[in-house]
Amino acid sequence: MNKQISGQINLFDIFKEEPKESPVLLNPGQIVYLVVRGDIEPYKVSDRSWDIQGTNRGYDLFNIESNTHSNVTWNVNINKDTFTDKDSAELKANEYIFNNDCILAKDMYIKELVAYKHGYLGKEIYNWYAVLENNMIYYHYGGKYDHIGSTDEIKIFEEDNSKVDSTVVYDYIPHFKNMYKCDTDSNWLYADAHYQFFHL
Q1: Any idea where the domains of the chain sit in the sequence?
Q2: Which parts of the chain register pLDDT below 50?
Q3: Backbone φ, ψ for residue 52 (5° rounding)
Q4: Residues in CB range of 187: below 8 A, 6 or more apart
Q5: Per-residue model confidence as pLDDT tens digits over 60-79
């Protein structure tokens, strides 16, 4: 009869252990709020989540407006940049705005606007730039992040529009985004919240 030595691993105990999985903290259909710098983005949790060897769990997120998969979040992000209630998300976003260099969309006023439109795959695409009251120039064009750049970029903007069959739009009403200070290695001064942002 074999006796088990103290401290010896029992193979039966190993086989009896069930693999541990990370807990499910978000449910399909649940609304969550992702804080990207000072912006708050609502998403709906999809029915797909996955476990990373018991260390973390990921969730696919759907854009509420388009109902298309457009982001992910993780257990480790909950209550850090992913929140289940909007009030907590607003506190986090306001904290970032208070402590960082940013220009809020609500504080932007147009002094001059130049806008063009052209067709692409059956859609109307609008490219524009606005000279703001503080003389900064806000750009929206060419599939780039919205950003505030230098006057030198107007030439690049015009060159881009000359490559497509575009027409001038005189009554365009632009939609501004909050602008956040760029790192020193960027050619832009301020940009959309997602520019140079990494959601881990």
Answers
A1: 12-99, 103-191
A2: 200
A3: -110, 80
A4: 149, 150
A5: 999 887 777 789 999 999 99
